[in-house]
Every structure is written in structure tokens, then in C-alpha cells.
Amino acid sequence: MVFIQSYCESNSSISQTWVDEGISPCFFFTLAPTILLTMCFFLGTVHCIFYQKYGTAMEPKFIPRTRLYGFQQFISVLLLVQFLSGTVWQAASAGELPGYVVLYGCFSALSWAWAIALLRVERRRVLVMDRTRGHSVVLLLFWALAFSAENLAFVSWYSPHWWWGLETKKQQVLFALWLMRYIGTGLLFFIGLKAPGLPRRPYMLLINEDERDVENSGQVSLLGTNEENQSTWSDFRKKVRLLIPYIWPKGNVFLQLLVLFCLGLVGVERAINVFVPIYYKNIVIPYIDSLMSNDGFSVLLLCLFSGASGFVSNVRSFLWIKVQQFTDRVVQVRLFAHLHSLSLRWHLSRKTGDVLRSIDRGTSSINSLLSYIIFSIFPTIADIVISIIYFITNFNAWFGLIVFVCMTLYLTLTVIITEWRTKYRREMNQQDNNAKSKAVDSLLNFETVKYYNAENYEVGRFEDAILKYQVAEWKTQASLAFLNQTQNIIIGSGLLAGSLLCAYFVTEGKFQVGDYVLFGTYIIQLYTPLNWFGTYYRMIQKSFIDMESMFKLFEEEEEVKDEVNAGNLQYTQGKVEFENVYFSYTSGKEILQDVSFTVLPGQTVALVGPSGSGKSTIIRLLFRFYDVQGGCIRIDGQDISKVKQTSLRAHIGVVPQDTVLFNDTIQNNIRYGRISASDQEVEEAAIAADIHEKIMTFPDGYDTQVGERGLKLSGGEKQRVAIARTILKAPQLILLDEATSALDTQTERNIQASLTKVCANRTTIVVAHRLSTIIGADQILVINNGRIAERGQHEELILKGGLYADMWMKQQQAHDSDSSSDTESKDRRSEKLQPPSTSSGHHGH
């Protein structure tokens, strides 16, 4: 029969907190479960009421299916059973059972049962509001306190009232139960930070995404509102896999050896940090009152070790410069190449300001990330582990526990608070991108701003964007100050507790003064990098946030891809075939419908029709800016989607409707058609394009800078430079997209003559607005509403009296009207210039 003789053991009282070099079991096993049950019951009850009143049942399809959540539940149930079975075992194995053992078992079982209920409530109900992913503060705090309570058992390492001796069967069983609790509560806390059973994003966002149109959901900013509240450590493995090529300089043996040598220097720094406090102790112990009579060799070694750490660190930083430059170069070059490989569709919808800011922040953040992880995080963790082992081994478990508890609290709160403030950093980045994007757009379109006197409007828009950025910046800085203050309190408390304990042992004669010096030196040396650990974590997180936009650029898929075994285009004659081609930029609106035509080698085919009918789209499809959705395009019998894009485009020359030049010299802009061309060949191309004489009138001639997008040149001059560029390329297939639309009549005639010579014996496709320029085409295709409405030569189409004849008649009438207006104005000017004649003058002769 089991009975309770008293609440505490004999010769013990609940008011006694310290008994025989350890915490009193009666005091500890009363306080710990009481705090846990009180916290879990009251806060958990409020939590459940709040979820029942303001929450909603979560749809099953949004609840993550993961084995880790099942493991989380299993551990919770296992701990509950452990408390109950442990209490029953102690009652069965002992005739007299202290009251605190029953209280400990019952209170602990109740608190864990309530925690399991909270875990299930959070999985089934959700607050309909934007919140960061993860468990509630109640559960996280409960698991953290439970894990901390098990760690406090280390304080009683030398006490005979606890189970550390493992001398009796009871102690062995109690130790096994404690080990189960320690591992279980630790796992629950760290798994709880991931929250595997809960959605990773706000529930309302998941609902909206489920109902949102696919096309609209894709049109978000580079940062993406979809991941506003997502942890920066999500997809960590994927991010690290992208970083590996930049961490390890593959193919460069010298840099690889340099990386290994720098890592070796990090190990040397860690060893030096251990010896510095040890030699402080060696100096102080022998002669407390007379330092001068101490061993001079120890003083010398102390000075050497104190300076060696900084010296090694500086050497490592110097050697790492080459590796850092390699990383920076590779990242930028690969990203730049990737952006050029993306489709025209992506480039037409991109925001240049966003892209430039993402590239700048992303490339700089990779260097920061590598430096912080390799040279800050890993060494700091190594220092902490070494210090815990050293203090437990050479001092006692108290000091190891102090370091461990402070480290756990510090890192835990740092992670929780930093994850909480992540959304503010993301918002700040987004507002920064928005401000810079507005500035870039406004400056690129400064002519439009001037046309409409919109300077004040643009300045106001930019100022409004800056104000929004500063609001987000204030939240980021305020939350950072809160985090720093929390870290300082934890570090200061740990340093105070350790110093007082060490001083107490010195006064008791258990420690020497040198041990106090050793502890003070080591703890300050340890807490300095630990204090920076929060900064490192924040900087790593900031780097991940800054890299997110860049990773999204890397993740952009190429719309037009070469097949795996694609070969080069074998250009023989220049026969172009469109066979039943269908194409649309967006689903539901077809631009081309069942377009079929053939251009024989050396022929000139003209495409005419109303604006938006699909003429320029045919040019883009032939150049393979896009792939067709139906049908086939062939050159000399070869499907262009089966050949390499570079080989296809090497044979095609394009004069676009809207010419954009590089901010470079005229000579280099023309030479862009063939980079290896000589100056003489550049001039010959300019002569053929009827722009050479105009260039020679400029003060700098061919070295004249054309300005941003060629804005220093007129529209006609830019188009002639583009024509010269295409002439210099000397392609076998020529595409002219409104090539003379920006030219006056005389210049147009001159260039038409030049183009006729260039296009001789070459397959040519011309998109024309002025029908007078394509009278001599071998075939004219009239495009209307994405279909070929008419086809034939000029005379045939005029005789048909269809759409082409109507367009021709309207252009002729407009031309005659313009000609008559010009004639009348010339006559008026002539009348004004002629002197008046009088009869008196005649009679005078």
C-alpha cells in the first residue's frame, strides 16, 4: 500500500532551495510543474477562446501533410505517458511517497495534455489575418520553459539527492526518464520553430491564391507579395545548392588551395583564443602581489598569443580577397548571361529599376553571406562549444550550465525576434525597389515629362515613394533596437551570474584568484563574438532577403529554348515557309490564325495591313523571339524550332521599326552589326545607308556620342544607323520592319535604292506602311485580324478591288492632298517674293 507521509522528504523543507551542493528536489519539482501548468492553463485557455471566437476552420487542402507533424504529436504523447508512468512506478517501488512527486507527475501530465490540445487546435483552426507562419507564442514559450527546466538539472551534478550517480536502480530509472524528457522537450522546441503542421503562409493569402487567375498571380514584383511572411530559411537547401558553385572555385586549383588555407587559419585562430586566458591565469597564480617576479616567458607568450589572433585574422582577410573577387565576378557574369537568355516577353514586362537593384543587392549579399558563415558563425559556435567543455572539465558544471543557458536563451530569442522582424526588412526592400523604379522610369521618359509639364507630379510621386520607404525603414530599425536590447540583457545577466559565482568560490577557497581572472578573461572573450552572433544572424538573414530577388531572376525560365540535340541551321537557298501558324501573346486572344505562305529564294515578300493585325509578330516569330503555338516555320526545309537560335539569327538581319542605340559612338553602334569589321567597312555601310555625309558634318564625326538610347540623333538618323548596321552584317535573309517609316521622302528614296542593292538575290520580308515602297515586291500579303486576307502582286491586288486596293486609294488621296497643299503654299511664297510691277515704269522707258 502506498501512502504519503509528508510533502518533502525527512529533514527537508520546501523553503530550502539549496541542499548538499544542489537544488532541493522538493523545491525544484514543485516550482517547475507549477509554473508550466499555470502558464499553459491560463494562457492556453485564453489562446483557445481567442481561436474559437475569432478563428475559422481550416480547409483540409491547405493543411500540410508531413510526417514531422506526426512525430511532433508522438513526442508530446510520449512525454505525457512518461510523466504518468514515472509517477506510477515510483509509487509502486516505494512504500512511502513524498507529496511533491505526486504533484510533479499530476501537474506535468495536465500541462502536457493541455499543450497537446493547443497543438491540435492550431492545426484545425486559423486566425483570418496576416500572420507569420509558425506556432503561437504560448506553445513556443511552454516548450522553451520545459526544455530549460530539464537543463536546470545539471546544476545539481554533484548532489547525492539527484540521479547523476547511477549507483542504485532507482537512480538509473530516474536518469533514463530524465534523458527521455530532455531529448523530447529539446526536439519539440526546435521542431516547433519550423512548425511542420501549419501553413507556411498566411491563410487568407492561400485562399486568395487559390481563387486568383493564374496569369494575374504571376504578375507580381520581383520580391513577390506571395512570400511576404515566409521565413528566409525556407528553401534553404535550394539556396545553398545555388551558392555552392560560388563558394568553391571549380577549375581553379590556386583559389581552391587558398580557400583551404583560409579555413586552416580559422582553426588556428580558435586555438589561439583558448590559450590567451590560460596564460593570464599562469601569470597571476604564482605571484599575486609581485607580477615582476613572475616567469617572463609566460608574459612573452601571453603577448604573442594576444597579438597573434589579430595577425592571423588580417592575413586571412587579405588572402580571401581573391576568392571574394572570383565569387563576385562569377555571380554577375552568370546572372547577366541568364538575363540575356530570357525571352522577349519577359524583357518587355520587366522593371529595369527593380532588376538593377536586385542585381546590386544580390551580388553584394553573396559575398557577405559567405564571409559571415565561414568566418563568423562557424568560429563562434566552435568557441561556444569549446568553452562549455572547458568550464565543465576545469571548473564545474555550474559554469558550463551558465554558458549553456545564456547561449540557448540568446540564440532562441535572436532567432524568434529576427524571424518576426523579417517582414519589415522585406517591406523596406520592396519600397526601395519601388522608389528606384519610379526614379529610373521618370528619368528614361524625361521627354514625356517635359511635354506635359509633369515635373512636380514626378517629384511628388518620388517623394511619396521615399516616405513609404522611410516608414518601413523605421519599423526595421526600431525592431533592431528591441532585439539589441534583449541580447544585451541576456549577456549582461549571464556575465553577472558567472562573475558572482566565481567570486564566491574564490572567497570559499575552492578557486584561486587566477581562476577568477581566467573566467573573466574567457567569458568576455567568449561573449564578444556571441554578442556579434546576433549581428551575424541578422546579416545572414538580410543577405538571404536581399538574395531572394536575385534568386527569382535565376529561376526565371527561358521561354524559347534550344532542344537538347539541336543542330545548326544549314542555310542553302533561303526558302522560307509558314505552314498553318497559330500564335497568341496571351491565352484567349489569337494574334495569328492559320497563316501559311512561302517565300522563294531571292524573293521579296511584303506584309501590309492595319496596325495590330500581326505583321510585326510574323517577323518576331521568324527571328524566334517566340515559339509558335501551332503550325511550323521552316527555312530551307528545316524547322527553326529544331535548330540552335544562334545559328538561326546569324543568317538573319533585322531593321526594326523602333531603333534603340547604345550610349556609345556612331562608329561602334554601326560596328555592332559585325564586331570584327574594320573602320573602312563601317564607312562603306554608312555610305550604303545614306548617312555617311551627315556623320561627317558632326564635329566628332564617327566618334560622336549618340546619347542614352540614341536620343541625340533624329529619328531618321537613328533608323539609317540601324540600316547601316544590318548592311554591315551582310545577312542572307533580311527582315525590314517599317524600315523607312521615320524618313522623309527624298531620304526614303535614297535608302530604298540602297536596300534594293543590298536585298538583291537575298530573301527579304518587308513590313510596310507606305504601299508605294513595296510596289515591286514579288508577293504582297495583306494581313487582317491575324489572317492572310489577300495575296498577290501590286497590279493583281489593285484589280481585285479588295482591302489592298482600298488602302492604296486612301494613301493616294492623302498624298495628292499633301501635294496640292505644298503647291499652294509654294505659290503663295512666290507671290510674296515677286516685286510689284507698275505701268508708270513702263511708260518711262
From TrEMBL:
Region annotation (Disordered) ranges: 810-845
GO cellular component: early endosome membrane; endoplasmic reticulum membrane; extracellular region; Golgi membrane; lysosomal membrane; melanosome membrane; mitochondrial outer membrane; multivesicular body membrane
Keyword vocabulary terms for this entry: ATP-binding, Cell membrane, Disulfide bond, Endoplasmic reticulum, Endosome, Golgi apparatus, Lysosome, Membrane, Mitochondrion, Mitochondrion outer membrane, Nucleotide-binding, Secreted, Translocase, Transmembrane, Transmembrane helix, Transport
EC nos: 7.6.2.5
Domain ABC transmembrane type-1 residue range list: 260-542
Pfam families assigned to the protein according to its UniProt record, in alphabetical order: ABC_membrane, ABC_tran, MTABC_N
Polar residues bias locations: 835-845
Location(s) in or outside the cell: Cell membrane; Early endosome membrane; Endoplasmic reticulum membrane; Endosome membrane
Ranges of compositional bias, category Basic and acidic residues: 813-832
UniProt topology in membrane: Multi-pass membrane protein
The protein, known as: ATP-binding cassette sub-family B member 6
Source organism of this protein record: Anabas testudineus (Climbing perch)
